[in-house]
## 1
Amino acid sequence: MILLDEPTERVCAAIKSGQLAPVRLAIVAPGGYGKTAVLGHLTGAPGVRLVDDAHLLTDAELSEVAGQLDDDTTGLVIAARPHPRPAALNQVLGRLTGQLVLRPFDRPRTEKFLAGAGRPLQADAVLAQTGGVPGFVRLLAAGDGELLAAFRHELDQAGEDTLCYLLAAEAGADPDLLAALNLPTATAEAVRATGFLGPDGRVLPVAARALRELVPADRRIALRLRLIRRQLDRGGPVLSLVRPLIGTGVTGTDVAAAFEVAAGEATREPALAARLYEAAVRAGRPTNAVGSRWAEAVARAGDFDTALQLADQVISADDAADRAEGAQVAGAALAHRGQLARSAELFQWSDTATARCFAVIGLTGTGRLAEAEKLLAGSKVDGPPTLLAGAVSSAATGVLESVTAQPTVALSTLIRSAEMLAPVSDRVLLPDSPAALGALVALHSGEAAIAEPLLERAISSGVLVPRHRLLLAWIAMLRGDEEGATAQLRSAGEKLSPRDWLFAVGLRVGLARRASDLAGLRRIWIQAREAVVRHPVDLFTFLPFGEFEVAAARLGERDRLAPHLRQARELLAGLGDPPLWASALHWSGLHAAVIAEQPEEAASHASALADAAAAGPYFATIARAAGCWLKVLGGEVDAVEVESAARDLHGVGLCWDGARLAGQAAIRTSDRKAMLTLLDCARVLQGRPGREAVEQTGGARLSERERQVAELVVAGLTYKQIGDRLFISAKTVEHHVARMRQRLGASSRGELLAELREIVQVAS
């Protein structure tokens, strides 16, 4: 099948009709451009001689062709490649009066050709493979057998220099490196004449594939090694040359050095860098020579177990020159695994300026304030004032300020740190990011609106993406946006570090609790128990541990969590009970006490929150709300006060907490008007339109036992299962359900379930 473009079709039609007689036309184009196809299209043109592959003719044959030009009645169309160009061919071409230019297929011509050939191939994919070279499009459509046979013939005809050039170009050699091969000058022209190169000088993918499949591997590897040696001598980049050699088993000093150099070039692709360092060791490079950099690449790729193994080998080797770097890698990996205390020890032992700053963060996070302050005060600069050095120093200062200064001061410092680190963050192994630390400070101080853009910028940089997405999910959950929180949680992926997994489990617990999904909460609680056992409490994990505390109260498992909460409070005491961090733990403790119906315990938390109220508007808001909770728990419900406190909580980002306060107050008051007002307030704070309470509740207050039964009915338990859970008979359960149905005015079981589900969700 022949597909000519419009200009070529017009010329061919004019030749065949005799309008251009006598024609004197040259068709000069690389292989595959369709010269032979055009000549075939002209077959039968009256008085026209067609000459194909004129570049391969002998001088005698070309002389005979030239003789025909003396006859004015004979037409001549000659097709040739641009190389080789013998002098006799130049003489013939010089006497012709026109040249036909052949162009690659465009998208419409490619689609038309593929349709005519009956091949269900995508035109864009074919163009990407072939560059639109007509002959290659035809071969690709014909199938692998014909394609490889055609390329094999072409390669068999190519000279040694041409093949060497093609292999080098396929390997990714730049023009300077190609020139360093010292091939004859005409080699480049010969290669271009094959049609194997695209306009940018690179080997077309379809031709590159043929080279890989048709040229023996040992020959291709030998050529690459030759290029690599030259590139190493020139100090040029080797990554593109070295990458295909991974896993081939090649060894030797040069290739090992090349793997190591290439790994250093792949800083933005840590997984690739890790494979290259491994390849360098397999090729003969001593492990200790690359150990810390290998461990760092592995850690940045997310494999903290292997990173720790490699780093430990470096630290324990007396002759390793980079033991300090190895300790820094191990410290970062342990931080991701949740071992912040051990991480700080390794950073201190490493004793570089950067490591000391990381140690300050770890010491502060584990309650060792005096050590952290002393280390930061005595830290000396041991290198140039780079962006990294400034960012890490600011991060350490910001974390200390979160304990010793106003929260706004700490947040400002951490934001500056994150902005300073952004340009270089994708090349550094961090135990935690300033963006994540800043977001934690923001979440603990009611500044979620500041945390969001901070986290989104960090995600765009590609660093610690799961960590930042989980914190965005936490913001969404606190706001009552369960759908947004679930989407961010899902986007964080399944391959999580232990620290990130702790936050992911905390989110799942929190979402199940907020959805009043008691069955789901019990399922996820199994993972929560494992997370609690595996992950020590530190300052930066109060969010998930707070969720675990509230869930434990809901499930009657507070004793299981008690040792960890005691550890958290001892940690806070070591830091002087800073309001920023202590308030979060007291707030979750208050909720746990409310659920467990422990007024004295709730009062102690409310008192601690009141003591911290002077730290800022956020802390004053939750202190007022805590006081409201105490009154509600004691049966004293002031609808105006409760609604004000609930709306204030909503205003500082604790939207769900505000709705819950209003909902709990509503079901505990005996004042029908107050109940309706507060239920309506709860719905509005949840982002749902308010409705007339008569339509919702029938004006009735649920007793404590009825609320318990309602939760279990909504969870899908049978009357017998509910009775077993509450130690009452199934008949008594049925009686409670009948009373609730009467009070709520539900005409069917489905309507009753809908009403109970909404009441439970609002109040829980």
## 2
Amino acid sequence: MSRERDTDLKAGLEQALEMISVPESLFQFAEELPGKFDRGELALDGNPKIESQPIVSIRSKRRKIPVVFKGTAVAVILVVTFFAGVTISPAFASLFRGVPGIDIAIDWLKHIREQDGVQTAMNHDYIPIDPVTMKIDGTIITISDIYLTEEELLFKSFIQTDAFDITDGSSPVSIWISPTNTLAGQGTTTSSSVIPTADSSGKPVLQETYKYQLSDGVVKQFLAQGTELELEVTKRTVTDEGRNLDIQQMGTIKVSIQPDKLLHNKVLEPKQALPVGDFDLKELSLEKVTIQPTTMNLILKGPEGWYYEFPRDDETAPYLKDDQGREYRYDPSGSGLLYYEGGKLQLPFSSSVYFEPNVRSLTLHIGSLQVGEFKPSEKLELPLNGEFPRTIHFKNKEIVIEGADYVPEGYLHLKIKKDSPKQKRLKGVSFGIVEGENITEKFNKVGTETYDAYRKKQREDMKSFHVNGFGIAEDYSKSDYLNVYIPAPKLNQYTLTLSRTGDSITVNRDYTVSLMP
């Protein structure tokens, strides 16, 4: 590089930026800056100041690296690195331009990162693994915000494509990304959004956040064998009214994992009882708390034979709050259900207290949950020519069967008394019959074609009966009673079963967990 070129650039910048003070060699400064950034030697605190003196390593007690910088020094950085042709690393560039390969709006990216904990990690100098971009047949895919912990693989995908309309949430076509080598694990997307581009193309970007739960020892094994992560990209198309899935291989994205990017989790096993106050589900147990750089995971344990679920997007969803007053939202993968053996369930939360040494406790708030039993807990004989109405006491409910008959389409039909004329559904209870438990197996054994025809008929029957499912008491046709339809052979007498299913419990309790050893 020439001294004359530096002098000319410096003069032009000073005039354009109202005579600010800048280094003598801007090109040298720009070339050194990304390396200092990636090595954690540079502190940029939102309004940095550059003096007319040699650049030195600056350290502060707490360094914050925001996505969008302010101040005259940043203007110099942007001009030099983006218009002077200086080569910079993808990790450094991604903080300015969103993600490499796709020019997305920075404010959208910052909002997403603040939601999922990536921004908090970056503010504490825990920069993600370098992003990678793949281009194939009119599709651009960038994998960014990659973090690997001892329990999870987290990353975001950014997709521009001509293969399908990414703004159509009901599109039968989707692109799926999953690890293929030793880091394979249970996982799915936790969030999805369509982001506007910052360029003039007008092509939107589909952003999805992935979380893969990894088994014990998998990460250690992966790092011992090599540090190249393979992500398989497939295009998936739902066909035949949702019954079949066509999977097409699009390619493989390889990501280099730096071992020094792996921070060790903070793990506690409090074995703490969480009273719930339900007559069946007396309490849950908090078995484990895992604090990671971007997320926190709680493992709860319930009684054998029961399942329990938490609401995700309403005001009764669980949340964590630290003793400094900061809240952390419940952010489950996919449907939110990640069950382990023995009634254990994972509750994941976005962002983390990992970098906050002064936090001494967390408080878990449970607003409500739904519970259900895996097997029926009540049986009774029900002859079709018996006396009606018939009253049944099940759990804390009084259920009145006003009548029963057999529908020629192949169903036992029950008429359940309403609690009020406007009642639409009997919540928390499902019905079945002992003889009917083998009907699905019967059709499944005779071949796919016959079984598919049977399932198609069931969907058509539900529509004609005006119900959302079999075995539940509903009325959406302004009937005088609630209707239950149960697939069954024609018999004179049935053994009716009742199960507690999806029953909502209001808890509204706080449980404080100490983080101190």
## 3
Amino acid sequence: MPRPERPLELDGTALVEFAVDLRRLRQDIGGPSYRELGKRGGYSATTLAEAAGGRRFPSLEVTLAYVRACDGDVELWEQRWHSLAAELNATVVAEPEDYDQAPYVGLSVYRAEDASRFFGRERLVDDLLALVQRQKFVAVFGPSGSGKSSLIRAGLLPRLPAHVLRTPGDHPMRLVPGFPSDQETVVVVDQFEEVFTLCQDADERTRFIAELLGRRAVIGVRSDFYTHCCMIPELAGALQDSQFTVGPMTAEELRRAITLPAVKANCTVESNLAATLIAHAHGQAGVLPLLSHALLETWRRRSGNRLTLTGFQAVGGIDGALAKTAEAVYGSLDARQQGRARDLFRRLAVLGENTEDTKRRISPAELDDDQDTAVVLDRCTAARLVVRDTDSIEITHEALIRTWPRFREWLSSDRDGQRVHRELTHATDVWEQLDRDRSALYRGARLAIAREWATRSQALTVRERAFVEASTDAEAEEHVLARRRAKRLGYLVGVLAALLVVSAVTTFYAVRTRNDITSQRNSAIAQNLASEAVVEHRANPSLGLQLGLAAHNLAATRKTRDAVLSTLATVVTAHDEEVYTATFSSDGTLATAGRDHSIHLWNVSDRRKPVRLGTLTGHTGAVRALSYRADGKVLASSGDDGTVRLWAEQKEIAALTGMGSVRAATFSPDGQTLVAGSGTGEVRTWNVSDPRNPVLTATVRGHTDAVRTVAFSLDGKTLATGSDDHSVRLWQDGAEIMSLSGNRIDVYDLAFSPDGRTLAVGSGNDKPVRLWNVTDPRKPAELPSLTGHEDVVGSVAFSPDGRTLASGSDDRTVRLWNVTDPGHVTEIATLSGAAIAVADIAFSPDGRTLVWTMFDPTMRLLNADLGAAVAEACGSAGARLTEDEWRRHVPDVPYTPPC
């Protein structure tokens, strides 16, 4: 017979009340023994009994296991556990200690003075020092958050006899006068990517790089700017033998980095906490600043001199600690200060162009000098979200961009407006540097764009507002002068001639051109109304569609038809974050995936009301590619977690690993072969005749950079691969037969036409869609390129009948092309209205539905038969456009409802 449970001493403390309620849960289900609870919950009877003992605070996992075993409300108890953890930890460290006494630096970079607490990279420091001693120029590459800056500053610099450390900023040549005159002192330039993100002068950038190449120098560069470096011939040449890569820490390196700083500060790290941290961080290249921040916050909540798993869980874990800190600071501000915080953090980031967003260093003079701004800066600095000195302000680490959802939302909304603001800020700086010279003011289209953005934003500072107002006044004065000159000239030259001409032709012209004038007026109004319809559709889809139909009714032009099509597309929120890829199975099931690590399956037989069929989970990083086997029974997925996963009947049946980030994967047409391209440039193939037991059949290495896209011809004989090394390569039987690299093509996507004769390439240069005749793949012939897109084309897809090619671009449009004759392609339609770049495009297997996804959580669906789409539009528009709405949008034309 089991021993009776020890009575609790009801002293009114929160921990005892927690234990009392746990015991009450057990009694509510009949009071089973702890041995029986252990069988249900997966923990020992002793562990579960101690959880309800009232002496020690149980871990979150043990608490939830106890609650599940008692059929309790898991979500409610998880919230209660976190509340109690916060309360108990607040009593452990009543006052936050000085950050300078902490054994961890949080988001900050380890500096030379932090060398005594910089652990885990000893071997890498030795290797880097040896390379610096051998080579005159060394480039240290690593992803954001891999610790390359700390490696350089706290690892390398203390071991160099003489050095100077700099960051480029927006004018890197200003650094050069401070460089040493001797050739022995090493010039160290950290955050070298700023020469691309902040420096706007290409000539200054080139001169600065030439200056570095003439000295002993070490540069630290984010790895996603490797391509930028390779585009400068002199720098690319210097990189041949001088690259040093910083990757993820090993488990042992992580253990040293976690435990030894604490030991040096006379603290200990619980073994289960160390094991949890290592498991979370192992193999993750960009996680180090998040790990350091989580450790710093755990140290502040330590129990005595012990860093505990409970304290770590209370701060939100590795992924949640930083966001929790940032949200706590944001929540402490009033509404006005929160607006200032949003504007501040937007200024502290540079929006990426085919790269991740990066941090930006600003001058304090860029901000308004008021109390609200001072409060925001003080609190963000105190929480180590921002670092500042007398000359600059910047976020502590770019990890804040990746992990704070609110920051990402601020940057993802109205990116075009933010770019307008950055250009306006730069123009204001130039204007003030030139003593407010009128010639530096905005005029014309730039002023109109800036004014339009300023009317819907509250982010302008006093100095920027003064610039816009001065520009407006200057343009108004110039217009007045221009009108006066035109008026005088008109009097001198044309008074008599005008009277004679008017009197001679007025009657004839009025009669003959009355209809033409009406038609031209309607056409002009229709063009404007079509543009308004696309914009209105974002906020009010029904009204946007009706305005598009009204425009098409006034003047049936290509532009008005495109407006109808753009507003007819069904917009669906498909994921929690950006949707990177979409593909159809042979039975018409749609699969989508993206940044939130999940794959959703959809029934889109009714384009207006897609139905989610299921969700596949298993990836631990963003999912970049999807491909169905021809029979539609097996789905392949690949992504940033370095795996290719196979799914059948909504269950994972195999996982292929060891490739680094995998952006491309596809089945051969016969379904017997799976091909994937890796971030290292490898292309691997597997025999998947038994998809539950894939067999690796080949690994080919022809590309020198990440493989972004792979595609098979319909007969399965030719494989095309596209890479960040600017080439498209064609393969047969595992051997390369042709490389399309003569024009240094920026390759983003590939697609073979159904007849196998044409290869379409989504590109990023002045010819965004390139076509090749690959009837003989050993002798491809380039066809005329397709122009019209104004930015990178990231996705291309042929319709099943091969008559139509769809292309999606960063210019936020999808264009459809008639490719019946690939040598004489014509554009069919331009679908616009999106607020962000297009990520992927797919046709349904019956060719009736076109789907495109965005770099946001949405996807759009449209009837691919464009004529039928326009014809059925009236039935989808709902109620007719009222006369009042008509007069508000079309005041100069009699009321003629569109449907």
